Amino acid sequence: MTADHGPRWLRWPSEPSRPRLAFGADYNPEQWPREVWQEDARAMRHAGVNIVSLAIFSWARLQPGPGRWTFGWLDEVMDLLHAYGIAVDLATATASPPPWLTARHPEVLPVDHDGRTLWPGGRQHWRPTSPIFREHALHLVRAMAERYGTHPALAAWHVSNELGCHNVYDYSGDAAAAFRAWLRTRYGTMEELNRAWATAFWSQAYGDWAEILPPRLAASYPNPTQQLDFKRFSSDALKDHLRAERSLLAELTPGVPVTTNFMVMGETKGMDYADWAGEVDFVSNDHYVLPGPQAQDELSFSANLTGWLAGGRPWFLMEHSTSAVNWQPVNVPKKPGGLARDSLTHVAYGADAVCFFQWRQSAGGAEKYHSAMVPHAGTDSEVFRSVAGLGATLEALAPVAGTRRRRAAAAIVFDWDSWWAAELDSHPTSRLRYRQEALDWYSAFAAAGVRADVIPAGESFEHYDLLVAPILHVVPGALAERLGAYVAGGGHLVTTYFSGIVDEHDHVWLGGYPGALRELLGIRIEEFGPLPGGDRAELDLGVAGTLWSDRIDVTEAGVEVVARYTSGDYAGRPAVTTRPAGTGSASYVSTRLGPDGLGPVLARLLARSGVRPELPAALAGRVELAVRAGEDADYWFLVNRTDEEVEVGEVAGEALPGPSLAAGRTLGPRQVRVLRRPA
Ligand code: GLA
């Protein structure tokens, strides 16, 4: 933990030690006349709201010009909320610079890889490395901290908003200068950089730091290590902004915890949150449901990973939606019960705060068709009634507050370096999707009714009997050693195609694939066999692979062939292998099997590792289990993943009451039940 004050939770203004879950939203009163504020506060109280995030996009309203400050309206809102017992997660308001700033200093605007300026008119149009932006932002942070640092409603600081949502990759002159400085720190000498970047290739050897640029639009494929380092640098540049705001807040208001909202969801991949998690007092996340057959699994996967980014401690769900969003091609509302199920799934994976974007649906602006707690229809609406029901439910779940995640026996390893490197261009296939492979394994675990944690690669592996590391592409020596020690210690490791291929510089481990893991797996691959278009490679388990296949030779005695290809170029050759090692094992899956195709492979891996479902077999695939561990009891969250009613039968435990929770022996469609089970 590098934050100035270790992990800390919200500072509740009243009854600070009373256990409770936080419930609320982004609140944007500046979009509404003053009369509405009173109405808002009353409706918030009615719905059980106890916290709001305020001032996220208020810079222009707070500082209408250089040296001009208009805090009066925010003073009034803060006081009003406090009078109603509602705490404030106060934004530093630096998320979107006002027009006067970008008009005076167009040099703060980001530039894309094609040299095009990203102009104002939307939001987040600032360069993470701009010294001018940083100066103005910190000026605002100071003003906010001095004005509100001792306000009784203040529960936490909310740095900026979704750092990197729109501006993670900036190719401007500022970015070039900062990238060079970052590279100097990383490599020290030109020789080291030239070696790491393999610049002997295509006449790219650099003689001076000043010659280096970000990977701007090039005549052909830009250097892959330059691209990978630019991704690392870009994540670090935003982290540096977070640290700058956080340090100033820590200096001015040391008693107030600081967070920023991550975006662990879908293909948002520019920020290495495993690396950022130590920078905040508590982890916060924003998550929006991505439609499709794996929607519920994707939500659960994201919540699960967020919980382990937080080290198993409680975290803050800063945003999700009550119903439709506005940024999909087609924005479908949630089904009845979907609002509560989504929220409670996050709680199941450790969220001690459930907040939405936003409190009141905007009448104007780009997000007016995005759902909110109070929809355009007003409080006399299904959405608002569901919101109030959820508020009462969260109140009833107060005993869960402060409890941690109960580890599963299995885990999926998630690694940003591998995500970034495996999806670079000039690869055997351009269709590989790192997160999708990890999600497919997660869905396969869910279908088998087995809990699996989703952990960052830095987490200790020793907790787990079964460890799946899908597409673990970047394997530096130290990681290979950790995996070897895990297997030697009796762990069961599983990895997949395109794993163990390169070191931290994206240089191939020589001698045959999967380089760094070749000996551990007891196999050797001379050539990859990516599968074009809709090509499938059948396996003798009755399932088919797509995307990838490998020509595998078994090189160690004792390696078992779990499945063979029965069609395609490698028919008759191994497709899935396991090398037993003492009481542990190392397995390899050479193709993309998808959530269903992974089923028979996972069944064998579960049997070998002795990992079993904790719920009755009849519930597998239909009811998801997540467990939180308290001091004297565990809390089992049973989530109906389906749109059908499910008979739960006898699962021991005392059911917690709550208007959004299922009681009795059945779970209605999308319903959740919470059971208290004395430890
Ligand atoms: C993000 C932002 C919010 C809002 C929502 C809409 O999460 O932080 O301000 O734009 O998306 O889904």
From TrEMBL:
<feature type="domain" description="Beta-galactosidase trimerisation">
    <location>
        <begin position="408"/>
        <end position="611"/>
    </location>
</feature>
<feature type="binding site">
    <location>
        <position position="123"/>
    </location>
    <ligand>
        <name>substrate</name>
    </ligand>
</feature>
<feature type="domain" description="Beta-galactosidase C-terminal">
    <location>
        <begin position="623"/>
        <end position="677"/>
    </location>
</feature>
<keyword id="KW-0378">Hydrolase</keyword>
<dbReference type="InterPro" id="IPR013529">
    <property type="entry name" value="Glyco_hydro_42_N"/>
</dbReference>
<keyword id="KW-0326">Glycosidase</keyword>
<dbReference type="GO" id="GO:0004565">
    <property type="term" value="F:beta-galactosidase activity"/>
</dbReference>
<feature type="active site" description="Nucleophile">
    <location>
        <position position="319"/>
    </location>
</feature>
<dbReference type="InterPro" id="IPR017853">
    <property type="entry name" value="GH"/>
</dbReference>
<dbReference type="Pfam" id="PF02449">
    <property type="entry name" value="Glyco_hydro_42"/>
</dbReference>
<dbReference type="InterPro" id="IPR003476">
    <property type="entry name" value="Glyco_hydro_42"/>
</dbReference>
<feature type="binding site">
    <location>
        <position position="327"/>
    </location>
    <ligand>
        <name>substrate</name>
    </ligand>
</feature>
<feature type="active site" description="Proton donor">
    <location>
        <position position="162"/>
    </location>
</feature>
<dbReference type="GO" id="GO:0006012">
    <property type="term" value="P:galactose metabolic process"/>
</dbReference>
<dbReference type="InterPro" id="IPR013738">
    <property type="entry name" value="Beta_galactosidase_Trimer"/>
</dbReference>
<dbReference type="InterPro" id="IPR013739">
    <property type="entry name" value="Beta_galactosidase_C"/>
</dbReference>
<protein>
    <recommendedName>
        <fullName>Beta-galactosidase</fullName>
        <ecNumber>3.2.1.23</ecNumber>
    </recommendedName>
</protein>
<feature type="binding site">
    <location>
        <position position="161"/>
    </location>
    <ligand>
        <name>substrate</name>
    </ligand>
</feature>
<dbReference type="GO" id="GO:0009341">
    <property type="term" value="C:beta-galactosidase complex"/>
</dbReference>
<dbReference type="Pfam" id="PF08532">
    <property type="entry name" value="Glyco_hydro_42M"/>
</dbReference>
<feature type="domain" description="Glycoside hydrolase family 42 N-terminal">
    <location>
        <begin position="26"/>
        <end position="396"/>
    </location>
</feature>
<dbReference type="Pfam" id="PF08533">
    <property type="entry name" value="Glyco_hydro_42C"/>
</dbReference>
<dbReference type="InterPro" id="IPR029062">
    <property type="entry name" value="Class_I_gatase-like"/>
</dbReference>
<comment type="similarity">
    <text>Belongs to the glycosyl hydrolase 42 family.</text>
</comment>
